Amino acid sequence: SQEGRSFNPLFIHGRAGLGKTHLMSAVAQQYLVNNPKAKVVFLTAEHFANEFIEAVRKGNLDAFRKAYRSADVMLIDDIQFLAGKERTQDEFFHTFSTLLNSQTQIIVTCDCPAPEIQTLEPRLISRFESGLTVELQPPGFETRVAILRRKMEQWKVDLDNGVVVHIANLIKSNVRRLEGALTRVASYSFLSSEKMTIEKVDDLL
Q1: Which of 115, 55, 28, 29 is nearest to 79 (CA)?
Q2: pLDDT for 29-47, tens place per residue?
């Protein structure tokens, strides 16, 4: 939206497993729902770097630039991958600047704040910090329980509430690990005739 462009770029950072990529995917999908004909570019920084290298190798830089600099919205995941890649950083800076100048919304994710990315050009850090920076925090207890219960519904798994609460108390910092813990417990529960207990959860995890 026009309101969103006042927060351009949007820089989202947080530890691995907190859902940055899922959030980006949801934004991209919703943008296409609202604007079905829009050109939405959603890729990882690694993919951008690999395509740039291939374009240089094949002499297709013009086509590469046209593909990315004509986007209506650009979402770049794991920008920390550009660290140490000077030529790719230079290319990304010019792509980034072109899109900003045309008021294209840019959303970037990273596993740390921009200034903490080692060997990233200061001009890129400055660009990233010129918009809105948001940190994703680990989910609170209620959210962790809600995530577990939703997954249990999806997987048709039935566990006692005390077991669910215990898992939520054990795994606090990472949604991916939380889901992995539930997978382990649910798999054992499915394959075993034993009633799942807190003691068994501790053994499994």
Answers
A1: 115
A2: 999 999 999 999 999 999 9
